[in-house]
Amino acid sequence: MRLRIRTLHLTQYSPKQIPVDKFDSVADDCRAEPAETAPPWRPPLGYTIDGAVEASGFSRTRVYDEIAAGRLKAVKACRRTIILANSLAQLIKSLPPAEIGKAAKMAALEARNEK
Fold first, then answer.
1. Are the C-beta atoms of residues 55 and 88 closer than 8 Å to each other?
2. pLDDT of the residue at 110
């Protein structure tokens, strides 16, 4: 008789093979219990350049340009540039609303005709 095996990934790097009839009990043992005293989530005070790019959707060049123009406040911590989170939020809030669809096309045509 062949023993049927299912693979249970206990960690990312070491899969462990367990017989099917014992799989459910081992899987229950492996489930992590939620932490009872988990610290409350706090928004970040600042972002690295890569973090600001990911959070805002801007390109790296745009982030550096905004810092150079003074519209984005950044500080240095040793060699690392930290962009203040409230400064990034203010910059995003100051951007004009997006015009999508027919209204945007009409506005672009009107702008071309005025020139």
1. yes
2. 82
